[in-house]
Amino acid sequence: MSDTRRRVKVYTLNEDRQWDDRGTGHVSSTYVEELKGMSLLVRAESDGSLLLESKINPNTAYQKQQDTLIVWSEAENYDLALSFQEKAGCDEIWEKICQVQGKDPSVEVTQDLIDESEEERFEEMPETSHLIDLPTCELNKLEEIADLVTSVLSSPIRREKLALALENEGYIKKLLQLFQACENLENTEGLHHLYEIIRGILFLNKATLFEVMFSDECIMDVVGCLEYDPALAQPKRHREFLTKTAKFKEVIPITDSELRQKIHQTYRVQYIQDIILPTPSVFEENFLSTLTSFIFFNKVEIVSMLQEDEKFLSEVFAQLTDEATDDDKRRELVNFFKEFCAFSQTLQPQNRDAFFKTLAKLGILPALEIVMGMDDLQVRSAATDIFSYLVEFSPSMVREFVMQEAQQSDDDILLINVVIEQMICDTDPELGGAVQLMGLLRTLIDPENMLATTNKTEKSEFLNFFYNHCMHVLTAPLLTNTSEDKCEKDNIVGSNKNSTICPDNYQTAQLLALILELLTFCVEHHTYHIKNYIMNKDLLRRVLVLMNSKHTFLALCALRFMRRIIGLKDEFYNRYITKGNLFEPVINALLDNGTRYNLLNSAVIELFEFIRVEDIKSLTAHIVENFYKALESIEYVQTFKGLKTKYEQEKDRQNQKLNSVPSILRSNRFRRDAKALEEDEEMWFNEDEEEEGKAVVAPVEKSKPEDDYPDTYEKFMETKKAKESEDKENLPKRTSSGGFKFTFSHSASAANGTNSKSVVAQTPPASSNGSSSKTTNLATSVTATKGSLVGLVDYPDDEEEDEEEETSPRKRPRLGS
């Protein structure tokens, strides 16, 4: 509420006949249904809560004092007072009260007072004409003065009176002269009284008194008084610290004497608040609110004065980026900017905008780019803090700068790449700096804070830039640590694991966990950019290598990445997962975990439960057909049985559909659908396949499931039986724990796109009918049955397809045999 006329403080009289401040708010007079009459309402200015609700009783005696006070008694021992900020507001409410009671507003009291004792209650209220009488400022009166100062602190109104008296008589300067005399005479008792007096005056919370106490003339004596705390055996040496130890560093000489004085004053007052004064109790916490405001407004003034002096800031920037500047000087310059940005947080939003725009215009970002790449740890740390202020203020400003920079610079020296490299190269074992930088990167790549204007979309432009110029730098440690060479070197001697064991260095594992967290964020927010990247780099396969890490937190990060991908329920991702057989490392991790009931176990089970609940058909079929034998022994959850049930229900539905369609149409229709699907997949998966390492999966060998041709199913059953003896040899090996173990291989052929399978499909479950699809067997038997299929419907492309299959790379030998 902006109307200061109705701004009031509410007071109640306590048992000690002192007025207690109940809060500040805005008063109104309205009819209240519950009270059946006109009432006075006061709502708190802080949160709008009700401070006072009082019916204007026709018989209550209201008294108006000093033009800004209205006092009355609600019950025998409950006296209230409203102290108005402005006389006009007091007059308005007084008129309302008089109107209800039928009195002339010119009266001072609406009812006759009952007795004189009631009158005495109001003597405590502040009267500007009747101030507290201060004792004369002499050594022998110090105890009396100390008692007076401490006695008024509990009463807001007496505090006001004392503050006015101290201000009017120039009393503080006289007290400080006494302090010098006491110190010269080594009068310990007097010094202890002066500590109480000066501390009490600070708690009066009056800005006008602070102006006197914190002036250059007085502040050191005020600090001196506060050294002599009676509770301490020896006085503190605060003045010695402020004059000798604390050094004022001018990175560039400050010529403005007012600015220099303001900086000194702010430092010393902050020192008084933070170091000298004890932490205020709950009852005292509001006593120093004006002191906090005093420091706050000083900081605002310092920032504004420095900001207006463009010559000063230009000189700072010039020295910061000058190669000739020595390391110590540069460290001081960066620390100055860090403090400067910290001070700027005190500014109002519009002033803060102007402040950061000034810094941007002067070239803060190019300067940061230089200092963030320096060897000095302190400089890098301070530069990171400054960068965080800038990102927090305006991510768009930082994004715009790096995109413009990309047109003129190499990828290596781009600001975002410098930030990523700092994150990767953090020497702290706990990666404190890396965590901070990761948070800043997340803010920069978050589409939620990207702008979309009519002529351009920041989101598409910046994400294109990021994936083209920066993503390879971010994923480099991940790809390096999950390469076959690296993993082989890291293999633990004597390990009973067949699969590769990856980064076991704790710091590396933490870094990879951070990178995975960022990539998981990308999967959730970046849609097709990250999808292209994952497909082209076969990224999920590399990430799942980390399921073998001895650091469970890293294995969980890898699992969370896959879970986020599956959570999108995107069929492109699902086909990529099934073609690459990427459930294999997850199931191996589950089996390796054995009977332990831990977070890894729960997370893997939750992944499969999600697939079951959401009924993701392609993944359900892949899991049941390829892994059910290994998983059927897990009975403490119904997840895998549930997946099998879903799979069989879907098979039954498909069979019913097929049985209702004539044979020739069935083959025709399904054949065409499969072909359309194949072309679609080839377009997606083989895009840019000429580029090395980009093609993830080859043309789809498996795109003709048996469902497509039920009539010909029996024709290749013989071929299938011939394979069964081989299949039995290749079933998953039973481990010592009684479960099944799959082998996981990262061969070049898998990366280059051959649809190789290291896990053999088991023989059909007895309950499934003749149309159940067996992926692995089918992959080898399609060629054998092709002749009979072509006879049904002839397609011109079939010859090309045959050639493709004949020239496709040989399948990798099964590791289970």
What does this structure look like?
With 817 residues, the chain is an alpha+beta fold. Among the domains are: 2-99, PH-domain like (Roll), CATH 2.30.29.30; 131-304, no CATH class; 568-654, no CATH class. The protein is built from 36 helices and 9 strands. The chain has a 7-stranded antiparallel β-sheet, with helices on one face. The chain has a two-stranded antiparallel ribbon with strand order 8-9. A hairpin with a 5-residue loop joins strand 1 and strand 2. Helix 3 (142-152) packs parallel to helix 6 and helix 16 packs parallel to helix 19 (432-444). The longest helix is centred in the last third of the chain and has 23 residues, at 663-685.
> Helicity level, as a percent range?
55-70%
Q: Ends: how far apart?
A: 81 Å
Residue windows where pLDDT falls under 50 for at least 5 positions: 113-129, 489-501, 668-678, 684-740, 743-817
Strand content: 5-15%
Structural class: alpha+beta
Shape assignment: extended
Largest sheet, order of strands side by side? Answer: 4-3-2-1-7-6-5
Number of helical segments with 4 or more residues = 36
Radius of gyration from the alpha-carbon trace, in angstroms:
40 Å
Average pLDDT works out at 77
Strands, total number? 9
Family: Belongs to the SMEK family.
InterPro entries: ARM-like, ARM-type_fold, EVH1_PP4R3, P4R3-like_central_dom, PH-like_dom_sf, PP4R3-like
Organism: Ursus maritimus
GO molecular function, one term: protein phosphatase activator activity
